[in-house]
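Design request, tokens follow.
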């Protein structure tokens, strides 16, 4: 197979609109990788089938978010000329691959997957885990290997999934012969980007907590959210020394701002270190820091908003991009599925030696009976 090709596969569950945590944690890097020209093929998947593993009773929620996520992708700069954007459920080869991989993974190994463990707790599944949900790391291995992905750019929470995939690849290749490509995870290099907190300072941005900044938020909404961000509750008067630890505004600045932003919007400081030093010493108010963050985020997201507005006016095109992308993705996955079946020697009807071999056995058997 194409060992030398550099291929990206990654994706998101369409359970809601994507937020700025997704952006710094993965989307921004995907666009950079896409535009680097270093990759031969790039596949970006809307993981609706995976989203259904814990939303079986609410398929409408998933359906509603297909176009929403597609718009998020296109608006951040994923370009359908360079990246294949597709919908997971429309590549049936992925489910077929999952079924064969299931035989290579033990129940106890799945139970030890830290992400699955955490999610089971979060959803209070404990004793009533849907089997499909429990197996989603296996289906994720199918997603990754079907495209022969060498590189999986994702957030840190997906580390156990890529690890599990690598195990499946090893197992498959050692049992059936060298067939699948071993993927590498690619994490964002900026620590602050690994997990951006919600605007209330809680560790995770989530729709149910109402603490998200969405990529689709209009400028005024984003501003309002930044101005209401959690900072240091003990930093009451401007002259008080402020704490950086757990201070959401500074975490966002860590994730978003560059020295260039200081030159442009806050030239009295050379960089973020100087701003932080002033804040911890005292004499720097939250409002000033928040206003700066607003400007930084406005610069980052105004092109995103513009692209989104264009695509929103032309949903027919978005629909076609997904349909065509899903067709291409299916073609690629079929190549891998065929290779997998060949390696397992279950490709009976494409294997001329199958019938000959069987005839040979039957002859032997008959001879045995005669004797
Ligand atoms: N699990 C990912 C998420 O929660 C979505 C996903 C499904 C994915 N299959 C994938 C990511 C394969 C990377 C590679 O968003």
């Amino acid at each position: 197979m194409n060992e030398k090709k550099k291929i990206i596969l990654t994706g998101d569950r369409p359970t809601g609109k994507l937020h700025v945590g997704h952006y710094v944690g993965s989307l921004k890097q995907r666009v950079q990788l896409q535009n680097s020209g270093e990759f031969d093929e790039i596949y970006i998947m809307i993981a609706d089938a995976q989203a259904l593993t814990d939303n079986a009773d609410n398929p409408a929620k998933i359906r509603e978010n297909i176009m929403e996520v597609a718009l998020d992708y296109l608006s951040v700069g994923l370009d359908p000329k360079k990246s294949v954007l597709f919908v997971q459920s429309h590549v049936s080869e992925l489910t077929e691959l999952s079924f064969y991989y299931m035989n290579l993974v033990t129940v106890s190994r799945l139970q030890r997957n830290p992400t699955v463990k955490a999610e089971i707790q979060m959803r209070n599944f404990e004793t009533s885990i849907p089997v499909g949900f429990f197996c989603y790391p296996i289906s994720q291995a199918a997603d990754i290997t079907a495209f022969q992905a060498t590189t999986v750019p994702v957030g840190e929470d997906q580390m156990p999934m890529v690890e599990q995939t690598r195990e499946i690849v090893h197992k498959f290749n050692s049992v059936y012969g060298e067939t699948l490509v071993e993927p590498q995870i690619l994490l964002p290099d900026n620590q602050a980007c690994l997990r951006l907190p919600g605007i209330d300072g809680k560790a995770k941005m989530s729709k149910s907590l109402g603490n998200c900044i969405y990529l689709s938020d209009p400028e005024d909404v984003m501003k309002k959210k930044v101005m209401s961000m959690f900072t240091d509750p003990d930093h009451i008067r401007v002259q008080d020394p402020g704490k950086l630890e757990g201070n959401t505004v500074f975490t966002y600045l860590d994730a978003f701002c560059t020295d260039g932003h200081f030159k442009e919007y806050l030239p009295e400081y050379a960089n973020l270190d100087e701003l932080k030093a002033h804040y911890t010493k005292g004499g720097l108010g939250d409002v000033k820091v928040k206003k700066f963050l607003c400007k930084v985020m406005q610069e980052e997201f105004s092109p995103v908003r513009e692209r989104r507005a264009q695509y929103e006016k032309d949903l027919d095109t978005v629909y076609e991009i997904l349909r065509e992308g899903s067709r291409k993705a299916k073609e690629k996955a079929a190549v891998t599925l065929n290779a997998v079946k060949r390696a397992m020697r279950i490709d009976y009807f494409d294997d001329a030696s199958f019938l000959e071999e069987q005839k040979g056995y039957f002859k032997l058997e008959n001879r045995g009976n005669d004797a």
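Comment from the thread starter after seeing the answer: thanks! The chain has a mean pLDDT of 94.
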